């Protein structure tokens, strides 16, 4: 067994389909992943099982890394928490209403730091990735849902995720654009940003308008090959992106906006997205950079390791 290394952290990304854990050594120019494990999230086996599975994964990955004393642990997961510490708005629905954080802490026998998965993404990209060096950055996940996280430069230049008064800072996906006529959202309102800009929302709109079912990458290709429905749809969604992101820029005025998730792989959001944002932002020259993620799928779990 190695002696205790003060730079080691455990990060856990509790996703809807998979749960990943890493042991990372901090302090360098890039994250040094010492051990990594990935398992399917057993959402069908119920709440208690997910609590135990998460704790077992933490112990196993620490054992893989050869550490005797468990390093500080951070967990990133979708959703937010209520004032009394219960999970809210998670797409792993058996967690909703449950005191997941307290139960993991009790089962693990030590403190754990929790955050929203979009905050973890934004934090990792600001520390090691595409928004590194920014004083203020906004990380956006355009995936199965739409989430966001605000990261501010902290003491000693170390980026920190800004949680906000009720833990919803950066929850841009549920800003309502068309409260009367927009598509219904699971949050109970209509016309949230998520109902226009998530991957499934774009795929569903394409199917409704064309009668054909295509995946997001195929829709992007079709738009460049004379498919008028695909082209008009992406033009429209880039415009929505610009209008919605402009509301963030007008309030936060970040140095960098970094995009992640499946929709962020569509070039059109960089080619024409920045111009659309500029049209709707209260400025004559747009200084904010809009950039693609640099850490890929690992950003969530690496960001979780940066929490404690
Ligand atoms: Zn909503």
Task: Describe the protein in words.
With 308 residues, the chain is an alpha/beta fold. It folds into two domains: 8-120 and 298-305, Nucleotidyltransferase, domain 5, CATH 3.30.420.40; 133-292, ATPase, nucleotide binding domain (Nucleotidyltransferase, domain 5), CATH 3.30.420. The chain contains ten helices and twelve strands. It has helices at residues 47-64, 100-108, 117-128, 194-197, 199-210, 216-224, 228-252, 268-271, 273-280, 299-305, and strands spanning 8-14, 18-25, 32-40, 73-77, 80-81, 87-88, 112-116, 136-142, 146-153, 159-162, 256-260, 289-292. It has a five-stranded mixed beta sheet. A five-stranded mixed beta sheet has the order 10-9-8-11-12, with helices on one face. A hairpin with a 6-residue loop joins strand 2 and strand 3. Helix 1 (47-64) crosses helix 2 and helix 6 (216-224) packs across helix 7. The relative contact order is 0.15. Bound molecules: zinc ion. Residues 174, 185, 187, 189, 192, 194 line the site of zinc ion.
Describe this protein with a few key phrases.
Nucleotidyltransferase, domain 5; five-stranded mixed β-sheet; alpha/beta; 21% strand; 35% helix; 10 helices; binds zinc ion; 308 residues
């Amino acid at each position: 067994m190695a002696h205790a290394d003060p730079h080691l952290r455990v990060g856990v990304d509790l996703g809807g389909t998979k749960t990943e854990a890493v042991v990372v050594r901090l302090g360098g120019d890039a994250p040094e992943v010492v051990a990594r494990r990935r398992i399917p999230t057993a959402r069908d086996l119920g709440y208690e099982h997910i609590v135990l599975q998460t704790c077992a994964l933490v112990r196993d990955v620490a054992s893989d890394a050869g550490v005797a004393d468990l390093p500080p642990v951070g967990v990133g997961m979708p959703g937010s928490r209520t004032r009394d510490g219960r999970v809210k708005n998670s797409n792993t629905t058996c967690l909703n209403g449950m005191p997941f954080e307290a139960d993991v802490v009790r089962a693990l026998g030590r403190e754990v730091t929790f955050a929203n998965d979009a905050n973890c993404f934004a934090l990792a990209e600001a520390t090691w990735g595409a928004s590194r060096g920014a004083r203020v950055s906004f990380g956006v996940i355009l995936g199965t849902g739409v989430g966001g996280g605000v990261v501010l430069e902290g003491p000693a230049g170390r980026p920190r995720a800004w949680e906000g008064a009720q833990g919803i800072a950066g929850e841009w996906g549920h800003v309502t654009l068309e409260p009367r006529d927009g598509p219904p959202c699971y949050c109970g309102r209509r016309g949230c940003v998520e109902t226009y800009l998530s991957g499934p929302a774009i795929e569903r709109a394409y199917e409704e308008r064309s009668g054909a079912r295509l995946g997001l990458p195929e829709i992007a290709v079709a738009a460049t090959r004379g498919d008028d429905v695909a082209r008009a749809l992406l033009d429209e969604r880039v415009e929505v992106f610009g209008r919605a992101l402009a509301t963030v820029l007008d309030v936060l005025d970040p140095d960098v906006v970094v995009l992640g998730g499946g929709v962020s792989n569509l070039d059109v959001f960089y080619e024409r997205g920045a111009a659309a944002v500029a049209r709707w932002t209260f400025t004559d020259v747009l200084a904010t950079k809009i950039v693609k993620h640099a850490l890929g799928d690992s950003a969530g779990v690496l960001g979780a390791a940066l929490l404690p």
